[in-house]
Amino acid sequence: MKLTFHGAAGTVTGSRTLIESSGKKILIDAGLFQGPKELRMRNWTTSFKASTLDGVILTHAHIDHSGFLPRLVKEGFKKPIWCSRPSAALCRFMLLDSAKLQEEDAEYANRSGYSHHRPAEPLYTEKDVERTLKLFEVVDDEEWFSLSKTLQFRFFRAGHILGSRFVQLSYPTEAGQGSILFSGDLGNGRSKLIKPPQSPPQSDILVLESTYGDRLLPRDSSLTEFSDIINTTTRRGGVVVIPAFAVGRAQEILQAIAQMQRESLIDKIPVYLDSPMALEATKAHLKYTDEIAFHPEDKWMNHPIDTDMFRALNGYEESITLTQTNQPHIVISASGMVTGGRVMHHLKARLPDPKNAVVFVGYQAVGTKGRLLQSGEKDFRIHHEKVSVNASIHTIQQFSAHADWQDSIDWVKQMPVPPKKFILNHGEEGALEALRLKILETFPGTEVIVPEHLSQISI
Ligand SMILES: [Zn+2]
User: Fold this and answer.
1) How far away, in angstroms, is 163 Cα from ligand 1 center?
2) 188 C-alpha vs ligand 1 centroid, how far in Å?
3) Which of the residues 29, 278, 280, 450 has an alpha carbon 20 to 30 A from that of 333?
4) pLDDT (tens digit, 9 = 90+) per residue, 403-421?
């Protein structure tokens, strides 16, 4: 078996790992590179021939794992995309949204003339997405799915977002069948929305994500810090802006706010969900309840769209109107890393006033506007306009959808025998190195590899 790391090597986006075994070429995830320009440029040069692939195994719907699929199709890929049922449902609107963003980017480039290509082309269009969606094939959990006589895979719940799975592959070796496990993005088991990851089956090799390889997230699930920020802000007449990933995090936050209201930790103030995609994702959470772990009394789950306290905004006009009101409220909006979307105009309206607060509840990648705000940057621009930052900026760590180093180690320890070989991906440099050392310390005698972009490993 040969593995080639076409993405998420030394970085957290662009997950694409090519497996070549028993005459088959299978890609695990086909994610978009996001963040700094030099990474995003990689979306334009596919480092393998799309038409030669025999299929894609998709771990979950996040765009950094699925957002390259329509480009593959545009480049001639016509084979199946295997995933869980909720992932197929989430990808439908997430990929269409991604195509819309690509088309808007190209249009903007043509209007402003900044593109090298004339005319600028989108990476893919909604038509490419429609063709992509026809290739999705749902695979049930825990059952072996045969790719050839000797190459098989099976899915297990990963507890990261709705529909997320980790994947075990069984492949031929000279000494019988070998096994390799791809963690995909791994949850930490503390989510109040999604059930925890399943135990990993015994495997020879583990490809492990390392997003929080250098961090220990808070174990305390109390909502005191969150409710303090909300109360301080709204009682001084301010607005709380929460940038949140539309899929998973937005619902997790709705769940937390519902709990704070139920336990009277916060005042009764209106909560707005301002992201068409987050609304779609919320509906999906209500439909695929098998892996949901929510409190039955939390009304947003029963009536997520329109109750006295929770309201989902529909049109763009409603969203703009909300930015002009002075009534204290909480607004949850995307994108989670402030890279675009409706959260931009909420921030533009609220950042200059010290009464307001911004609460980050998710990972902010290097090079994103979210990371800049989080690290105290005062020279801040939105839509090419300078915006002064006077609102208070907070980060709450407990909502991470990823395992930290301790969670990852504890998860691996559930295998009767640790893997012989670890391959670390999906992390930034410091996180990868920290996790490498932790693994060597915990499982002496194992081998830990940190592959570089486009490097190959033969097994
Ligand atoms: Zn993810």
Assistant:
1) 11
2) 12
3) 29
4) 999 999 999 999 999 999 9
